[in-house]
Backbone:
């Protein structure tokens, strides 16, 4: 029997009280909560610890710097005990392998170690957006290239769009953890996301986790929106 795709609710806010409210009203409906750049920079690491207490934490800070700085940054974040944490795959093989080593040092018990995810190509980028950055290929080809590099260098998984899941599974098998943002329930606004799919489509493609922010947090009733997505995943 295949495993159900799990739901991460992205708490993108600069307000600690708002995040606390979502944590208590949504935290037990979804499988994990995401805290990222906006919340961490605005509210600080103590707030990350407190808002995520009792929940699985996806700490999405997308680190990208020289290998030593990224590895040291991950070590400094270890007390937050995230279940999943992110670096950018385009930082290269040494940055990724040093990140893995830093997490293994901070968490000698493998079961406790945060899973290291490498962000491939942001879901807000399409062909034109990627080419503008000087990468003269399609998002699919770039995701595959970076995905292979990241997994070979020690990442446990990848952040990609649902459009690349099949390609990555064919190349890398079932083991890498695939975390998939750019999810939009049918009929909802795409906002700044370009490579989108519905929760059902992402689950059927083989996502381990989907990440959903605004379709939940900007809904009239966020708890109901989260419940609807959980129901969609259960029946996908
Ligand atoms: O490629 C990426 C990597 C991360 N994200 C994050 O996921 C959520 C998506 O939020 P929505 O409101 O559902 O668009 C957000 O926190 C991003 O930082 C991503 O979208 N794409």
Residues:
């Amino acid at each position: 029997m295949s495993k159900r795709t799990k739901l991460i609710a992205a708490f993108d806010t600069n307000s600690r009280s708002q995040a606390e409210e979502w944590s208590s009203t949504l935290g037990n409906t979804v499988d994990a909560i995401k805290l990222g750049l906006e919340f961490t920079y605005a509210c600080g690491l103590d707030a990350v610890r407190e808002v995520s207490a009792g929940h699985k934490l996806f700490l999405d800070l997308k680190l990208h710097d020289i290998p030593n700085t990224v590895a040291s940054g991950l070590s400094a974040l270890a007390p937050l005990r995230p279940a999943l944490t992110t670096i950018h795959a385009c930082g290269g093989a040494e940055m990724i392998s040093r990140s893995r080593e830093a997490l293994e040092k901070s968490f000698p018990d493998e079961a406790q170690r945060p899973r290291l995810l490498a962000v491939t190509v942001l879901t807000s980028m399409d062909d034109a957006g990627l080419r503008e950055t000087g990468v003269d290929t399609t998002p699919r080809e770039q995701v595959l290239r970076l995905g292979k590099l990241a997994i070979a260098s020690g990442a446990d998984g990848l952040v990609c769009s649902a459009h690349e899941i099949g390609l990555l599974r064919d190349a890398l098998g079932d083991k890498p953890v695939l975390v998939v943002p750019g999810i939009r329930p049918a009929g909802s606004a795409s906002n700044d996301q370009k490579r989108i799919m519905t929760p059902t489509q992402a689950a059927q493609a083989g996502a381990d986790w989907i990440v959903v922010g605004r379709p939940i947090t900007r809904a009239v009733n966020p708890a109901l929106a989260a419940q609807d997505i959980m129901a969609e995943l259960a029946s996908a």
Observations:
- The first helix runs from residue 16 to 26.
